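Comment thread on ticket #2218

A.B. wrote:
> Attaching the input chain for the structure job we discussed in standup.
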Amino acid sequence: MYVNIDNKQYQAKGGKMTVVGYCRLSRDEDKENYSSIEEQKRIIKDYASTRNWIIEDKDFYIDDNVSGYTFNRPEFTKMLEKVKGGKIDVVVAKDLSRIGRNNGKVLVLIDEFKNMQKNLILVSEMGGTYDVLNDRDDTIGITTWFNERYVKDCSRKTRDHMYSKQKTGRLVMGNYYGYVKDKEDVTKLYVDEEIRPVIKLIYKLYIEEGLGRKKICDILNNKYNYPTPSVYYRRKHLERGRIYKHPVQELWSTYMISNILNNDVYTGNLRTHKKKTVSIRGRAIKLPEEEHFVFENHHEAIISKETFEMAQNIRKRKAKSKSTSGTRKRNYAFSGLIRCGDCGFGVSGITMNRKQKQKGYECSQYRTYGKARCKCHEIKESDIIIHLKEFLKFTKERYQDEINKIEIEVKTNNEQTNKEKIKFELETLKAEYKVLLNQKIKDLAHNHTNEYQKQMIEDSYKELEIEKTSRIEKLQEILNKEEQEISKEKIIKLKTAMEYFDEIISAEVPNRYILENIIDTIWIYSDKTVKFDLKVDIEKLI
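C.D. wrote:
> Ran it. Output below, let me know if you need it in another format.
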């Protein structure tokens, strides 16, 4: 049913209307000019009182220090679910920028509120109060555009400021295993004497004793009690009364050893501008070394530059010796299909005989952590092929009639999943573009007193339209390619499992496509046992 309040119409269940408040704060984006959470709550409550509504503290949904550019906010998501479920009738916020700073998503959200006949009221918007259900939205598209441009401008300024500090060595970001920052001046690093011995030991074992990373892991895990980098960082965070939010590895692993051997911070160098983000809330991408800023003799060195260079030469020599034919990548017939039967983890492809270039597999946990996690049980690829052929021959003889009835699905789940993701993103963009055009028509339909204002609206929407259409075209192109690839595979005649069995048995090396249609998992064990799980349980069919 509907109830009338101040000559405005709202839908409510049983005549009782549920009104809530929403507050959001992002200190990074709003700097010192932000309106605090408490200030936002006061503004919302003051407005509610003029309408004889009561919004208690428990009725507020608050996202503190969360960017408005993303809609993936805990309290915001929870609130929207209740709006869509009919449990909330009216949402009151200070202004539109609190709801979000992503133009397209905000316009789509406003459209959703209208379609659901739920109201969104912005207390301080467009020189007054904006009521989604009852007020005209003449310039709401321009408002959302300026809100998005604001956060993008802030993001750009922040990146520029960071770049300037990185370029002059005034920004020391992240944690450094073996170094502590000066409490008074965070640009200064001092050696942590507790960690100095383990850094020296790793270089000594690698250079002087010629041990590999896995062997060094075994020694550190079994003979010493040095904390791993993540254990060390967690402890330092706790000492400062902070929570360490990253995964913690108790055991030393090969990638930890690599990070230490490849990091020139231990020679006294400070290296900045190693990564950058290319969009708001986007992932950081690694930059090539020529774009790094390097400040030599920035802090006390733990190892000499000569020692570090020697370690790099050894690393390059080992990498070169592992290369089978220049830079050509090794192709492993069973990659992704094999798991370790002892620990349950995946396996890694390895070269077992350098001269004969014999391919094989080894438990990834053993390769990374050594005996602390699993046993050494490498196996040749040729041996797995022999086991597989024997297994298929036996299975074929025993269940011949049942196998002939099994038809193999050609299209893989991964391809379908990828296609659906692209389709979903494309439909979302098209919806945003449609709302954008509707809003543009509304804005231009009203009589504007001067040509400058009309031109500003045209220019603003033109930029937004180019952004949307460019992304839509790019996604459509990707989707067309995906569908072409899937169509090619659909042309392939469906075969029975028996025909696939025969092809594997007769082939010198099994065809990867056929393997993925037949085999679910291959298990290798330390006693050299190999077991195979088919994609179809034949015994269940019987």
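A.B. wrote:
> Thanks. Noting for the ticket: The longest strand covers residues 19-25.
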